[in-house]
Amino acid sequence: MLWVCILLPQLALDAVLRRLPDPSAPLALVGGPAQLRTLHAVNPSAAAAGLRAGMRLTAAHALLPDVAMVDYDPSAEMRWQRFLAAWAYRHSSLVSAQWPGCLLLEVRASFGLLGPWPRIEARLREELAALGFGHRIAMAPTSRAARVLAGLRDGLAVDHPVAMRALLDRVPVRRALLPDGAGERLHRMGLRDLRAVRALPTDSARRRFGLPLLEHLDRLYGRTDDPLAYYAPPDRFDSRIELECEVEGYTALLFPLRRMIGDLCTCLSIRDGGVQRFVLRLEHEDAHTDVEVGLLAAEREPATLFELTRGRLERVQLDRPVVAMRLLARELPPFVPATRDLFDVRAQQSLPWPQLRERLRARLGDTAVHRIVPTSDPRPERAWRRADGDAVRIGQAPVRPPRPLWLLPKPIPLRDFHVRIVSGPERLESGWWDGDEARRDYYVLETSQGQRAWAFAPPGEQGGWMLHGWFA
Amino acid sequence: MAGVVALESLLATQTLWHAGRAAAIAADGEPTGYADLDALLPQRGWPRRALTELLLPADGVGELSLLLPTLARFTQAGATVVLVAPPYLPYAPAWQVAGVDLLHLEVIDAATPRDALWAFEQCLRSGACAVVVGWPLQADAAALRRLQVAADSGACLGFALRDRRHAGNPSPAALRLEHTRDGQGVGTWRIRKCRGGPVPAQAFAAGAW
Q1: Which of A151, A169, A368, B139 has its CA 20 to 30 A from that of A398?
Q2: Contact A192, A173 (CB under 8 A)
């Protein structure tokens, strides 16, 4: 096995910065109890002004009055670590987010698919940069060694156990992540590197430092197994963003929305799934507004999903300010990309029908696009039905006398006294079984304007025409 | 005679042209399904990648019968045909009898004329539809031009069905047909404008119902 450790030195800060339109503005994460607020992390522009992690909040305000403050949320940090574990799952089938602030991936099995290490490394770095997370990467034959090396130098990679041991022997004890502060104690005792620690008699080392130190060293050097809890992808997507200020209009929601949709699509492509239905929950102070987005077919194209969600969002009346936004997708059905002929000639900006349909539905309403299907009922108003979605079976309508192409939604009186009867009557007597009985004599009429009308009269009469359709 | 300009140079700059000696128009139109109508049209069919306007005195004068052969042919070939905000319910059994494969006929409802116009343009522009039929109610010349450009970029046949009172207004549509009735009350389609050739004096009689 060959383990890669991706160390995320400022995970909490990156998670906040990536949702801001301008990440270069000074910003600090603030943590600690209310009486003693201290800075947890600062971004580069805040650091340039002299702010440091661990500084008191009052001191930070004195140095830089207009620094943006965001509360540090340890649970958010965990959530982002899990999100990145989901992302890393694309590159390796063994991913662990067990240790705080870092991810571990087994990559030897991925070489066959993704190419040699430099290529994988470049890819990891590129994707992490696109996601907006600072990182340090190291590779070693044991997971613990990879973690230690990532802390030492970014980009360090050893793939042979012998080379790894030689390298580890030179690691300073204070940087070897020894348990219970043993590193500091060993350093004060004059032991500078791990070679010296390993040279200690085992018994006395155990007496002085306890078993964890020896176990740590064994696992570090690969002499015993290092059990890890592996990451398993979730079967739903749930992401929440708290907005910095109360938002009244929907345009300010678009930027975080784009990020959320991007995260959703990252999650989808990891699962090799699509999304067909999700909820965008706009949280207010004391209530929330749900924006349901439903598609007729599973989709995972970020641009399409963003455009559709935006269309739905535009139609929402925001009567209260929004303080947070949450995207929730409970069902992630398998996604089958549309097959397309390699040599298919398509117009330049052409849009496949499913995407066009979703765009239309997003603006005009969920039921706006439909098909019509004949049914076997003899009553004209029931002889057809609407059909939504792709799975439509279209039967053959029973053979009947000529029927008009246009049907009026409801019969209306025909205000024309110069009609000519072209054909008829056709007696229709039906529906006594469901309480919607119809007894009508249908005629084809020609109006004075030359239109062909389909109208009915009470049985046996030829007047009081009720217009029901046009032969267009 | 200094003012004399050679005839040849005028012809060359196309400020002067021979009447009746039109440049050969490629007969690449989409067959309408009516041989008589095809013969009247310069492209021998509906103009491709363009908007065709049908001007009607009222609904139900045979406008759908004129289009149905085309719609039936496209749907049977598996191409998508879209009706944008039709004024009435398309009656499924009758459309099926007319040969339209309902699997490829999509109907779009729109609450307002503005939405309908937007949907019409989206469908024309998308390239996903072979034929788009719309009933633009509040379409001015600019809107029609947009539709015409959209039909061109989406490479589809667009049909705009409008009231006859718009016949006097100029229109960017490539082909305009107006429904009229002759002395005997027989409905005919008169060509008001056709791109690529002189307007034929003859009208097309849609024939008996």
Answers
A1: A368
A2: yes
**Is A8 in contact with A41 (CB distance < 8 Å)?**
no
Q: Under CATH, to which class is A237-329 assigned?
A: alpha beta
Residues of chain B with pLDDT under 70: 1-3, 14, 17-26, 183, 185, 207-209
Q: How does pLDDT run across A39-81, given as a tens digit for each residue? A: 888 888 888 888 888 888 888 888 888 888 888 888 888 888 9
Judged by CB atoms closer than 8 Å, whether chains meet at B102 and A380 is answered as no
Q: CA nearest A257: which of A269, A268, A247, A272?
A: A247
Q: What is the pLDDT of residues A179-231, one digit of tens each?
A: 888 889 899 989 888 999 889 898 988 898 889 999 999 999 988 888 888 88
Do A409 and B88 count as a contact with CB atoms less than 8 A apart?
A: yes
The beta strands (E) that lie in A234-383 are given as 237-247, 275-283, 288-299, 322-329, 369-374
B-chain residues near A372 (CB < 8 A)? 89-92, 95, 102, 105, 107
Assign domain B27-205 to a CATH class: alpha beta
- What are the extents of the domains in chain B? 27-205
Indicate yes or no: CB of B88 within 8 angstroms of CB of A407.
yes
Domain boundaries, chain A: 3-220, 237-329, 392-471
Which residues does residue A466 pair with via DSSP β-bridges, in sequence order?
A413, A456
